Amino acid sequence: MSHSTTNTSDVLALDSLLGSEELELREKVRDFKDQRIRPNIARWYEDAVFPRELPAELGELGVLGMQLEGYGCPGRTAVEYGVAAMELEAGDSGIRTFVSVQGSLAMTAIHKWGSEEQKERWLPRMAAGELIGCFALTEPTAGSDPSSMASFARRDGTGDDAGWVLSGSKRWIGMASIADVMVVWANTDDGIRGFLVPAGTPGVAVTPIDAKLSMRASIQCDVVFDAVRLGPEALLPGAMGLRGPFSCLNEARYGIAWGAMGAARDSYEAALEYAGSRMQFGRPLAGYQLTQEKLVNMVLEIQKGTLLALHLGRLKDAGKLHPEQISAGKLNNVREAIKIAREARTILGGNGITLDYPPMRHANNLESVRTYEGTDEVHTLILGQHITGVPAFR
């Protein structure tokens, strides 16, 4: 990216708020995006392909479970994770989604709630991208309300050697068809618990959801568990109740606040470049007041959203970040990113509906980002309860 482009994307000089290590990491991930994602993403999106060689490359880049300590994990800060998520989503939301599912969801669940044996078995190879994880929480009839999940695991036997029998179904499970291990959440007689289900376990059926208009360079699946027998070692011992999955969701939601601004920035930069070279009525589009207003509104919201994400990151690194603050970041930044991607498409005219340009692809992807990890409505209600003291979920 040229110096002038960087300046036109950072009117408020927000880069001055980042330290040298944060900037160095960002450039490293940006280079990866420019070399590996940008030249290929239109084809991956058109063909609905998630490239299987990418996990190992992302592991080598150091972005898988990057905010986790030990067990071969990178141990980077929340802000460093954020700037990496922003650059990856500037490439494509589907690629950032893989990093989020792998690190913020599956690896975080094992790291936070798993036994020492589970951590040693899975985390080092997941951090390297050698093994892939998924996070099975959402169900066909329980999306925004995970407390209503119908999947159930009953005790199989008595004593310390007692295993489990898991039955139920899940939907929209990212990476499930290529996962080496599933983190599965299910009701039990003792409340909601988490289980590790390795690939190839009898009774597990995984079906990719193919007919998608969004996240086409990513994988989402239906999963059915038909009386799946699990040993006692499958249980995540530390996770009890919804606190287990919610702690992982908050990690993912935090990353989205950064990532969405990456998609927005990439859309804006594509529109800005096009407006400077596309001639209409004898002058470039960028020379018209209406076009300039669009570009100004875009860059203002990107700068505000990036500043919000950075503030959340500093709070997180200080151990002071609260769930309602994460909701504010996720709700605002995804909502604004969709508006920016759509507005950028209008500057591109008819050319904007092709995969030669990224805004419409970003807009389509962001429809998924807007829905997963909590819809606008859910985050509005979280914030509403915080500011009024009255829960309005039911």
Automatic annotation (TrEMBL):
Record keywords, A-Z: FAD, Flavoprotein, Oxidoreductase, Transit peptide
Catalytic activity: glutaryl-CoA + oxidized [electron-transfer flavoprotein] + 2 H(+) = (2E)-butenoyl-CoA + reduced [electron-transfer flavoprotein] + CO2
Pfam families (alphabetical): Acyl-CoA_dh_1 (PF00441), Acyl-CoA_dh_M (PF02770), Acyl-CoA_dh_N (PF02771)
Residues annotated as domain Acyl-CoA dehydrogenase/oxidase C-terminal: 243-387
Biological processes per GO annotation: fatty acid beta-oxidation using acyl-CoA dehydrogenase; fatty-acyl-CoA biosynthetic process
InterPro entries the UniProt entry points to: Acyl-CoA_DH_CS, Acyl-CoA_Oxase/DH_mid-dom, Acyl-CoA_Oxase/DH_mid-dom_sf, AcylCo_DH-like_C, AcylCo_DH/oxidase_C, AcylCoA_DH/ox_N, AcylCoA_DH/ox_N_sf, AcylCoA_DH/oxidase_NM_dom_sf
Domain Acyl-CoA dehydrogenase/oxidase N-terminal: residue ranges: 21-130
Example of a GO MF term: fatty-acyl-CoA binding
Top-tier EC class: oxidoreductase
Enzyme Commission number(s) of this protein: 1.3.8.6
Every Acyl-CoA oxidase/dehydrogenase middle domain range: 134-228
This protein's pathway: Amino-acid metabolism; lysine degradation; Amino-acid metabolism; tryptophan metabolism
Origin superkingdom: Bacteria
Gene3D superfamilies: Acyl-CoA dehydrogenase/oxidase, N-terminal domain (1.10.540.10), Butyryl-CoA Dehydrogenase, subunit A, domain 2 (2.40.110.10), Butyryl-CoA Dehydrogenase, subunit A, domain 3 (1.20.140.10)
Cofactor names: FAD
UniProt similarity note: Belongs to the acyl-CoA dehydrogenase family.
Record protein name field: glutaryl-CoA dehydrogenase (ETF)
Species of the source: Arthrobacter bambusae
